[in-house]
Design brief:
Elements (H helix, E strand, L loop, with lengths): L2 E8 L3 H11 L5 E4 L15 E4 L10 H18 L4 E2 L3 E6 L4 H12 L4 E4 H7 L8 E6 L3 E4 H14 L3 E3 L4 E6 L5 E5 L2 E10 L5 H4 L8 E10 L14 E6 L2 E5 L8 E4 L6 E2 L11 H14 L7 E11 L7 E4 L2 E7 L10 H14 L16
Parallel strand pairs: 1-2, 1-12, 2-9, 5-14, 12-20
Antiparallel strand pairs: 3-8, 4-8, 5-7, 6-7, 10-11, 11-12, 13-16, 13-17, 13-18, 14-15, 15-16, 19-20
Length: about 375
């Protein structure tokens, strides 16, 4: 006999762990399944930190969702006794006219966000950047970063506290609808039934929902940590998270935190197609060169010895917006993946939205832009 739950969540990364917590605290009988250990480094959420920007140049429609996510990161940190959100400010730097700073400014104005528009000279006077003549920036003081690995463990701990059942190191092999309108999930260790299934497996979504494979592409990204010549310049007390659009690519970085190295992410649009079932996670040599080129030209004070490289995966849609929707023909199955390389910051709020969808059939947020119908 299959063990029965109200909701099964497949994939306990950023989204899945938050969904498990939000469901469990509502009194839902929830099972979380993760093919690796909880808090692993095989997916898209490791590397210590993820940026949280409020002035969202990817689309101002995201702003209410990230505002709620920020509230929940703060709330969850207080519940667990370890802060998850660090308000260090965020700075988007781009060439004037490229649209990045202009769209971030539009989002700030549309939602009344505190912000400051800076020219190149003002940025260089305040922070250790060496920029192009036509670089401009938008500073957002209420933004910062989320402790990504810590947050997954926090959500999992809270889910367990509220009665959830979480299985690490148990791979989901497939699912099928049941006669009663629910689902049966098969793993490498058994089978389970539930009224609802939330699929949040990141790069493995195409394996569990083959119809989504044409609309998703898994790419490799690289994170690097470098020894700064003057660590005090990059201290989180006065150095913000940032995005930097330059001729060398579109990079992102962080102040020093929990690691002696300055963290810089490889170009967002420089991903290399990747098979998520590759057993190793070797960083890209090309990305390593791109990181060095960015540091040498734009952040020379951080261009010291390499302290570490890690690879992670982005799972991209053609329009780079998320997928959050019920599966056509199987309304008991909710898909919450992929997030196109910019989703982690929203995970706390998306977990809440998934819990609402699974229990009431609707969310407080308008999730229409994330619907599957746009790929039809």
């Amino acid at each position: 006999m299959s063990k029965t739950f109200d909701v099964i969540v497949a994939g306990i990364g950023g989204m899945g762990s938050a969904a498990c917590y939000q469901l469990a605290k509502r009194g839902v009988r929830v099972l979380g399944l993760e093919k690796f250990e909880i808090g692993h480094a095989m997916g898209s959420s490791h590397g210590l930190t993820r940026i949280l920007r409020l002035a969202y140049f990817e689309g101002e429609a995201y702003v209410p969702l990230v505002q709620r996510a920020r509230e929940l990161w703060i709330e969850t940190g207080k519940l667990t006794g370890e802060p998850l959100f660090f308000e260090v400010g965020a700075l988007d730097i781009a060439h004037e006219g490229s649209g990045i700073v202009e769209k971030a400014l539009e989002a700030s104005q549309a939602h009344g966000l505190e912000h400051e528009l800076l020219d190149r000279d003002a940025i260089e006077a305040r922070y250790p950047f060496t920029l192009d003549r036509n670089h401009v920036g938008l500073y957002q003081p209420q933004s910062g970063f989320v402790a990504s690995e810590r947050a997954i463990l926090a959500h999992t701990a809270l889910a367990l506290h509220h009665g959830a059942e979480i299985h690490g190191c148990e791979a989901m092999l497939g699912w099928e609808p049941t006669a009663g309108g629910g689902v049966r999930v098969t793993t490498d260790q058994g089978s389970y039934e539930a009224g609802r299934l939330i699929l949040s497996p990141g790069a493995w979504i195409g394996e569990l929902v083959p119809t989504l494979k044409p609309s998703t592409e898994v790419v490799l990204q690289t994170l690097g940590w470098f020894a700064p010549a003057r660590p005090s310049l990059f201290d989180l007390s006065h150095f913000p998270v940032f995005t930097l659009e330059a001729d060398e690519g579109h990079f992102y970085g962080f102040p020093l935190w929990q690691h002696p190295g300055f963290k810089l992410g490889s170009p967002h649009y420089g991903g290399e197609a990747y098979d998520p079932d590759t057993p190793s996670r070797d960083p890209s040599p090309r990305h390593r060169e791109q990181l060095r080129a960015c540091l040498a030209k734009h952040i020379p004070g951080a261009n010291g010895d390499l302290l570490g490289l890690k690879a992670c995966m982005y799972t991209m849609t053609p329009d780079e917006h998320f997928i959050i929707d019920t599966l056509p023909g199987h309304e008991q199955v909710i898909v919450a993946s992929p997030c196109s390389g910019h989703g982690y910051k929203f995970a706390s709020a998306i977990g809440e939205a998934l819990a609402e969808l699974a229990t009431t059939g609707s969310s407080r947020f308008d999730l229409g832009m994330f619907g599957l119908s746009r790929f039809s």
